[in-house]
Design goal:
The complex is a heterodimer of chains A (114) and B (110). In chain A, 0% of the residues lie in helices and 49% in strands. Chain A has no helices and eleven strands. In chain A, strands 2, 4, 5, 6, 9, 10 and 11 form a seven-stranded mixed β-sheet that branches. Chain A has a four-stranded antiparallel β-sheet with strand order 1-3-8-7, with no helix packed on it. In chain A, a hairpin with a 5-residue loop joins strand 4 and strand 5. Chain A starts with a strand and ends with a strand. With 110 residues, chain B is mostly beta strands. In chain B, the strands form two sheets. In chain B, strands 2, 4, 5, 9, 10 and 11 form a six-stranded mixed β-sheet that branches. Chain B is globular. Classes of the chains: A mainly beta (114), B mainly beta (110). Chains A and B meet through strand 5 and strand 10 of A and strand 4, strand 5, strand 9 and strand 10 of B.
C-alpha cells in the first residue's frame, strides 16, 4: 500500500500562475486535510474534507481552493500564486475525522513561487 | 481560533541527556496527538492522549496529558542520535480539525 501519495514533489511557479496539487490515499479513509508548513510555524490547516462531498475552511484558506474528487482524492488549487504561498504542503488522511484518530501524511510538495 | 503553544522551539542535547517538550492550550482539549518529523520528511504519528492525567510510555518516550487537559509533555530519556527531528503536538477539540504546535526541533550531539 502506498498510503498517501502527493504529486508533484517539487514545483517552481511564477507569481500569478496557477496550479493544482494532487493527493490520493488508498486506505479507504473518510477525512482528508491540506496543511502548509513554514519555518517556525508548525503545520497550519488550509482546508479539510470530513467526508466525500464536503469541504471546510481551516486556519489559512485564503488564496486556495479544494476539490474532494472522490473518496480517494483531494486536490488543492492555487488560482493565482503569490510569493507568500511558498511553503511545503502536506496532505493527510484520517479513517474517521473528529474521533482523534492518527493522521497519515504524504511526503509533501515543496512549492516555490518567484 | 484555537491555538496550541509549544516550547522550546529548539533544543540541543548531548547524547544520553534527557529531553522534554511542552504544549499548552488556553482552552480544554478533547485530545492531543504527538508527531515526529525527521529532517526532510513528513510528520509521523507517535501517540494520542485522551484522558485527564493520562501517562503513556513508548520505550524511552513518556507522554503526559495534564489533569485539566490543557497541557501535555513529551519526555525522552537518554537521547540517542536516532531521536533527532522535530516533535509536534496537535490539539484536538470537537470537530475535525487539529491545531498543531510550532514544534520543538531536537538536535542530539554525539
Amino acid at each position: 500500500n502506498a498510503g498517501v501519495t502527493q504529486t508533484p514533489k517539487f514545483q517552481v511557479l511564477k507569481t500569478g500562475q496557477s496550479m493544482t496539487l494532487q493527493c490520493a490515499q488508498d486506505m479507504n479513509h473518510n477525512s482528508m486535510y491540506w496543511y502548509r508548513q513554514d519555518p517556525g510555524m508548525g503545520l497550519r490547516l488550509i482546508y479539510y474534507s470530513a467526508s466525500e462531498g464536503t469541504t471546510d475552511k481551516g486556519e489559512v484558506p485564503n488564496g486556495y481552493n479544494v476539490s474532494r474528487l472522490n473518496k480517494r482524492e483531494f486536490s488543492l488549487r492555487l488560482e493565482s500564486a503569490a510569493p507568500s504561498q511558498t511553503s511545503v504542503y502536506f496532505c493527510a488522511s484520517v479513517l474517521i475525522g473528529g474521533r482523534g484518530q492518527p493522521q497519515h501524511f504524504g511526503d509533501g510538495t515543496r512549492l516555490s513561487i518567484l | 481560533g484555537q491555538q496550541v503553544m509549544q516550547i522550546p522551539q529548539y533544543q540541543h542535547v548531548q547524547e544520553g541527556e534527557d529531553f522534554t517538550t511542552y504544549c499548552n492550550s488556553s482552552t480544554t482539549l478533547s485530545n492531543i496527538q504527538w508527531y515526529k518529523q525527521r529532517p526532510g520528511g513528513h510528520p509521523v504519528f507517535l501517540i494520542q492522549l485522551v484522558k485527564s492525567g493520562e501517562v503513556k510510555k513508548q520505550k524511552r518516550l513518556t507522554f503526559q496529558f495534564g489533569e485539566a487537559k490543557k497541557n501535555s509533555s513529551l519526555h525522552i530519556t537518554a537521547t540517542q542520535t536516532t531521536d533527532v527531528g522535530t516533535y509536534f503536538c496537535a490539539g484536538g477539540w470537537t470537530g475535525n480539525q487539529f491545531y498543531f504546535g510550532t514544534g520543538t526541533s531536537l538536535t542530539v550531539i554525539p
